[in-house]
Amino acid sequence: MKKILLLVFLFPIVSIAQEVMPPLIPWNGKSETLLVEKSNPWITPGELSNLTESPTYEETYQWIKKLADSSPLLQLKSLGKSEQGRDIWMLLASASQTFDAASLKASEKPLIFFHGGIHAGEIDGKDAGMMLLRDIIHGNKGDLLEMADILFIPILNVDGHERRSPYGRVNQRGPAEMGWRTNAQNLNLNRDFSKIETAGVRAVVEVINEYQPDLYVDVHVTDGADYQYDITYGYVKTGGYSPAVSEFLSETFQPEVDQALEDWGHIPGPLLFAANGRDFSAGNVAFSFSPRFSHTYGDARHLPSILIENHSLKPFRQRVLGTYVFMEQAIKTMASHFEAVQQAIEKDQNQAKESLAVKFKFRDAPADTMDFKGVASRREKSEITGGEYVVWEGKAISQQVPSLLMDVPVQTVPIPKAYWISSEWGEVIEKLQIHGIEMETLAEAKELKLEYSKVTDFKMVAQPYEGLMRVQDFDSEKIYRTQTLLPGSVRVKTDQDLGELIVILLEPESVDSFFQWGYFNSIFSQTEYMETYIMEPMIAQMLEEDPDLKKEFEAKKEAEPEFAQNPRRIYRWFYEKTPYFDQNWKVIPVGREW
User: Fold this and answer.
1) Residues near 366 by Cβ (< 8 Å), separated by ≥ 6?
2) Which residue of 106, 324, 352, 409 lies most exposed, with the fewest beta carbons within 10 A?
């Protein structure tokens, strides 16, 4: 009886959620012709509902397995298990019918890597990819495999995908049931690319390392303000680590993909984030995303990387068809300009750098203005809260919107010759290995003089972020220490293809460093202490034997009256000057070799 009553209660909520959505601008596009007839034996589960529904994990697996079994041009591969034990499946497509990484890397064609469902409620990429591969194998798009080889993960966050219900995203138009944003451990996969705590992102990084794709595309669905654009996407355009790749994406890739989307009846646009959080009257913000995000991580690796953000207020059907068009044109563009792509990647891998920007701020003034295809809105005062809220009116308008760019470096660090990490920090060493970073491992003990950062002041976050207690703010100073590193310790040279990523992960000032993520938090714990009955005679002896110390002590008391009246602080001050004080306390255990 309780379940029946719950369902009776929930049905009106679903109805209300649909009724209060902003009004739609009518749409029909040429891409609707991509849908096959219901009688087609290879119709996808999503097409059976006219793309109002999306299949379950099991339905998806059965369909892609059947497709893979039907053609020697496809291979279905498990990338490992999720946290709940589900396989993360990847389809490989190649006209050569050879699917090992060595053959695909040696191919004269580009290798394209797509995945859907990193946020499992945002599942457009899954259904679009299934349709496209169907048309390649059993339709009229077979020529695409003559242009490129393809890697496709339909569902990355497989556990979140199966947390399905009609209540996943209140501001998204379909599918009828959608998965959950985070995984079974409530971790957001698209905040995990630097720290690699999830099975899904580990699978993606391992694919990138093993197959070395030439283009990486991560398909999402955005939310927020309303506008006319249905397929928005972006990449690191300025302020990144791969300027030659960014130039290719900006001057070649984007114009061709935008044109194809327009030809097929869609409205492409850049990534859109309202500066005031409500509408675009204050401008559109181009954030400097850190490498915890997929496309910025790709940029740090010199891998052309795209973040698609389809508009949540557009119907699922429209979004899936636009994603299909994007994927198809991405293959064509990469094939047409493959030599230019390779040259851009090589140029970025070989750029000489003495320092690296690890933190950015906004420009003082807008970079420019864009001709914005907006939707009319008005602000009304809420009778419920008393505050203002935006009402979208469903009418197309044109606006001039300032572009606010966050690409001015505010923190730059010099790049050392190498970093050293002691063997006891095995978790950090393992993460570097997962990233594909080259390192030398000591087979016997070695004494070295290295530079370290010592934290002088710090503040932790008030609550966990992505399951970790991050370091929010800190000050540090550089110190030099001679110490013996034991077998198992590693030397990580920065002169390698992933040199920029190494600096991002190991320099404390980087917002995505292992230090700021909290992997070295144990250095903040002090485990040995003083006793006053020992310190009192010891201090007297220190002052008697060291006149300079006595002058320093008197000067400090005069300059800081509070210190002079605080016995505990005085004892502490002297204790820190003795060899008994913990020399490892607050020293970040990443040594720099210059």
Assistant:
1) 283, 402, 403, 404, 405
2) 352
Which of 64, 59, 87, 94 has the alpha carbon at shortest distance from 76? 64
Q: What is the pLDDT of residue 16?
A: 52
For residue 482 the two structure tokens come to 């001679």
Please choose, from the candidates 358, 372, 442, 448, the residue with its C-alpha nearest in 3D space to the C-alpha of residue 408.
358
Per-residue confidence (pLDDT) for residue 223, from 0 to 100 = 84
Q: Residue 1 has what pLDDT?
A: 44
Considering only CA atoms, which of 388, 190, 359 is closest in space to residue 287? 359
Asked whether the beta carbons of 430 and 261 are under 8 A apart, the reply is: no
Token reading at 515: 């230090």
Give CA 565 to chain center in angstroms: 50
Task: Of 547, 589, 550, give the one whose Cα is nearest residue 573.
Answer: 550
Identity at 100, one-letter amino acid code: D
Alpha carbon distances (Å) from 383 to 21, 380, 387, 388: 19, 9, 8, 9
Length of the chain: 594
400, 431, 397: which is closest to 514 by C-alpha? 431
| pLDDT value at residue 529 | 86
Question: Which residues of the chain have a pLDDT value below 50?
Answer: 1-11, 13, 15
* Helix (H/G/I), strand (E/B), else coil: 184: coil
- Distance CA(549)–CA(552), nearest Å, equals 5
Q: Give which of 122, 341, 320, 100 is closest to 218, Cα–Cα.
A: 122
Please tell me what DSSP assigns to residue 239. Answer: S
SS3 442: coil
Three-state secondary-structure class, residue 272: coil
* Contact (CB, 8 A) for 53 and 173: no
Residue type, 352: A
Tokens representing 283? 């401008």
Q: Which residues of 328-362 are buried (b: 16+ CB within 10 A; e: fewer)?
A: bbbbbbbbebbebbeebbebbbeeeeeebbbebeb
d(C-alpha 325, C-alpha 135), whole Å: 12
Residue recorded with tokens 């990193």 = 118
pTM beyond 0.90: yes
In this prediction, residue 20 carries a pLDDT of 85
Residues in CB range of 449: below 8 A, 6 or more apart: 480, 481, 482
CA distance 497 to 435: 12
Q: Using alpha carbons, list the distances in angstroms from residue 351 to 218, 228, 243, 361, 513.
A: 26, 39, 10, 24, 22
The whole-angstrom separation of Cα 302 and Cα 317 is 33
Predicted local distance difference test score (pLDDT) of residue 352: 87
Whole-number Å distance between alpha carbons of 78 and 75: 10
End-to-end CA distance of the chain: 72
Query: What are the structure tokens assigned to 561, written together?
Result: 């009256």
State residue 64's pLDDT score: 98
Taking the C-alpha atoms of residue 508 and residue 451, their distance in angstroms, rounded to an integer, is: 13
- At residue 18, the pLDDT reads 62
Hey, what long-range contacts does 341-347 have (CB within 8 A, 24 or more apart)?
341/110, 341/214, 341/215, 341/245, 341/248, 341/304, 342/214, 343/244, 344/242, 344/244, 344/245, 344/247, 344/248, 344/304, 345/214, 345/242, 345/244, 345/245, 345/302, 345/303, 345/304, 347/244
